[in-house]
């Protein structure tokens, strides 16, 4: 299977969640066993030699491949969630997105200074969510931060938000 085949397995939904937004639905990729395996293998190959100790999945679609990748890498999985969803003490970062304002939170004790962290989400559009996730992660002082997406929408230039010390990679660039 190729990256082109992976890209073709993603459903495009116009005007979701609001008019003017083209939503890339990765659930169609996930339901295809060979596409899911190919995606898992590709992500593993990208990060197998990076010393990742924690994979942080961004709510909510980062919760799908994040644990799969963490298991394959022998790392822990940490959820980064919207407010009010985590039961213990949290720290947070707010941000603007294409169609509103939001906040992400993580448990205050989720990351240790010796951790090498991979932040994972499904899509890089304008970059607001992951930029906030990176700012939040930097407050926790891990050794290194990697950022990964399944899809990057290159025409929106979301990658430009990240500082040079953060390695940002995507499986598919559309």
List the helices and strands and how they pair.
Elements (H helix, E strand, L loop, with lengths): L2 H6 L2 E4 L7 E4 L1 H4 L2 H15 L6 E5 L3 H12 L2 E5 L9 E8 L2 E8 L8 E9 L3 H12 L4 E9 L14 E7 L1
Parallel strand pairs: 3-4, 3-7, 7-8, 8-9
Antiparallel strand pairs: 1-2, 5-6
Helix pairs in contact: 3-4
Summarize, please.
The protein is built from 5 helices and 9 strands. The protein is an alpha/beta fold and 174 residues long.
Structure description:
- This protein is 28% helix and 34% strand.
- With 174 residues, it is of the alpha/beta class.
- The chain starts with a helix and ends with a strand.
- The mean pLDDT is 94.
Summary keywords:
globular; 9 strands; two-stranded antiparallel sheet; alpha/beta; 174 residues; 5-stranded parallel sheet
């Amino acid at each position: 299977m190729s990256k082109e085949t992976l890209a073709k397995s993603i459903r495009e939904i116009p005007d979701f969640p609001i008019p003017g937004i083209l939503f890339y639905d990765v659930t169609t990729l996930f339901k295809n066993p060979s596409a899911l395996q190919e995606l898992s293998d590709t992500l593993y190959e990208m990060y197998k030699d990076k010393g990742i100790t924690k994979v942080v999945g961004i709510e909510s679609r980062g919760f799908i491949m994040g644990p799969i990748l963490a298991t394959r890498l022998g790392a822990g999985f940490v959820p980064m969630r919207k407010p009010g969803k985590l039961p213990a003490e949290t720290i947070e970062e707010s941000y603007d997105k294409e169609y509103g304002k939001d906040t992400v939170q993580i448990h205050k004790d989720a990351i240790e200074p010796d951790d090498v962290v991979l932040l994972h989400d499904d899509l890089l559009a304008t970059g607001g969510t992951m930029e906030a996730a990176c700012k939040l992660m930097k407050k926790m002082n891990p050794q290194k931060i990697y950022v990964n997406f399944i899809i990057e929408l290159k025409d929106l230039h979301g990658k430009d938000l990240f500082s040079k010390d953060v390695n940002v990679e995507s499986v598919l660039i559309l």
